[in-house]
Amino acid sequence: MTDHLTVVYGASELVVGPEGPTGIEVVADGAFAAVDGTVVAVGPTQDVLAEFPAENADVAIDATGKTVLPGFVDPHTHALFAGDRSDEFVAKLRGATYEEILSDGGGILRTVDAVREATDDELVTNLTGHLDAMLENGTTTVEIKSGYGLDTETELRMLAAIDEAGSRHAVDVVPTFMGAHAVPRGMDTDEYTEHVVSEQLPAVADQGIATFCDVFCERGVFSADQSRRILEAGLEYGLTPKVHADEFAAIGGTDVAADVGAASADHLLHTDADGRARLVDAGVTPVVLPGTAFGLGADYADARAFLDSGHEVALATDFNPNCFVRTMGLVATLASVGMRMTPDEVVRGCTSAAANALDLSDGRGTLAPESTADAVVLDVPSIAHLPYRFDTNPVSTVLKSGVVVHA
Ligand SMILES: N=CN[C@@H](CCC(=O)O)C(=O)O
Ligand SMILES: [Zn+2]
């Protein structure tokens, strides 16, 4: 069997990968070549085509006037759900807060009701529709959390549906167990924490689908001690920790993330200088979710404080019924305007930094040699146009492992 050759050439700007603490390496008039889905050459078009002529390629894309990036990695979503919470959007416009809605038994708990009632087929169908939308907007890898089951059976059903939809779809899916997303009605938090540790975690480990274990460490939800207990137990089953930290109040989530060696700490709207130092000293990737802040009408996370001290920041949609955004392009705009992130920082946040938040080690989020050839061609002349334009989807072609999966 002959090798499968992919060549993308002539891009006015092509992003290779990270450069320096927070920047990116960009090649003008750039090209890359991939053999059997792995990047083998990247650089000026003339050099790449001299070695890998476009006429020999199975897939040849003339990207003249366009911008080529690694496929977007979206490292934080709750993309599997059922039901409709648009009425809560309206209630929030009238002054209700997210925390009030949740403590009154709404919010996450209403989605739990809808997910428990949904069939397995409905769950897979819902998620597949969302994966289609993500792919059309340039996302090639997405993390998806359980956490709308809050009982062993439904948490396992969610992880199975995530696995099923992901295995049939071009987008790569990274599954996270998040039984500790809220406390189900009729249980107190200590009791439910013990249930997650002694019943859900062993069953999730037996099922063998989840990569990460995440906890909503938040005022009125799981305390720092409860979060630590769950994440340490998850580690014993081989699940890498992640933490929802400091979304509404700083109650120690960043300490927990640092102590358990989390891959990421996410949200960080109320994180102070000590919390930031704890994360960066422990090598925890900060993930900021500007769509959530925008949707809540809240102040944005202080991404600049990380960046100005030389630490990269990952970006994610946080797509969920409270934050209905599936497009990293819009997140790029919100990150720029809301947090003053530059186009270079934004692109790194949506690609290699996001891959770091998922501990991906196969080069996803970059187009350097030996990386998986996941790439997105934008019909715009430079990376600045990604955050600058927010009216239409700029994606013209998406490649996964060197194969066109959307055009
Ligand atoms: N804050 C906790 N979890 C989600 C929201 C989930 C929901 O409201 O359904 C988040 O990260 O924003
Ligand atoms: Zn979340």
Automatic annotation (TrEMBL):
Cofactor: Zn(2+); Fe(3+)
Example of a GO cellular component annotation carried by this entry: cytoplasm
Top-level EC class as recorded in UniProt: hydrolase
Binding site for Fe(3+): 76, 78, 244, 318
Alphabetized GO MF terms: imidazolonepropionase activity; iron ion binding; zinc ion binding
Binding site for 4-imidazolone-5-propanoate: 85, 148, 181, 247
Enzyme Commission number(s) from the entry: 3.5.2.7
Pfam family, one: Amidohydro_1
Stored HAMAP family: HutI
Family recorded in the similarity comment: Belongs to the metallo-dependent hydrolases superfamily. HutI family.
Protein name, as recorded: Imidazolonepropionase
Organism from which the protein derives: Haloferax namakaokahaiae
Gene behind the chain: hutI
